[in-house]
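Hey, I was hoping to borrow your eyes for a little while. There's a protein on my desk that I can't quite get my head around. The fold is given in discrete form, as structure tokens running alongside the sequence. I'd be grateful if you could look everything over and explain what you see. Here's the protein in full, and shout if anything looks odd to you:
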Amino acid sequence: MALLKVLLLLLGLGVSVNSDVSLQKRIIGGQNCNDTKRLYHVRLESSNDTRITCCGGSLIHPQWILTAAHCWKSEPGWTNVAVLKVHPRTAGEQRQLIRQAPVIYSHNFQQHDIMLLKLETPVTDVPLPRLPDRRYRLSRGSVVQLAGEGTTTTGPNNQRLTPDAAIPPHLQCVNMEVVDVSLFVPLTGSIFRAKAPNKDICYDDDGGAAMLGNKIYGVISFGGVYYACQRPATILDVCEYKDWIRSITGRK
């Protein structure tokens, strides 16, 4: 009864009330990643004279990073830098300017939202994730773990905050249940979708990995517009691109 009175008072004052209690959520709704896991997580920083944007990525080979294609900034004046060993924070960050053009998957003259970036200097002291086993495909109800360094909080009514927010002090992880599989979306590619109550990805999480065990089954592509926790996250299905990845990187 007391809670009802408080809610009625807030409504009477014109305050927007959201039953999900949207403020102060992580990744959104996640938790700190284990410091012994996700050592392959990469931060991609793209910048010009006035702006900087970030994405996630995964080191899947000593010289290759797997991420989302829309994370690449190709306009004049932009530079793209891979920041390795961002997790845990004690790992000692390494930065490499990406000098070579990205390799973006294309089929029938249509690019998909998945790409590979080649490093100038191999990184040999980071444990790599395994590529997925196509004999064990994801199905509805499978639980994947996502990770990223995007904003961990939301505004009123779960409004997404701008991607200019400070990077969280710890890489964030979240478990999500697969709700749709084997979908094709024009201009995006072969995807699956995943969600969890009161949890979501946010700006800057794009490009990060969706893991099942120690295998990378997905690349985060998109979470939705403006409001968090309203739509499932869209994730590129790495199983559909495994042969392409192997042909470019030589990864078994």
Summary: Helices lie at 2-12, 242-249.
